[in-house]
Amino acid sequence: MGESERKNVSQMARDAVEVTYHKLHHFLTEATWSAEKMNERRLEVMNKCSQTRISRGFSLIVDDSGHRKSGCLLRPIR
């Protein structure tokens, strides 16, 4: 998603392998899934990689500052 210009369901479906808009939309809006199971799977995947493996003193920082922002910056009034 980081390279996609738009961050919406249509774009995510186009960028994903073997995913259609309807399948993704259903998953996000109608499918029954457990946030707890999803979190367990996330932790399992993180622990497979040495850079994200959870250990003593581990901190995971999620930062979107590397993503381009849309819109324009406001200039201060002087």
Automatic annotation (TrEMBL):
InterPro entries: IS701-like_DDE_dom. This is Transposase. Residues 3-71 form the Transposase IS701-like DDE domain. It comes from the Bacteria.
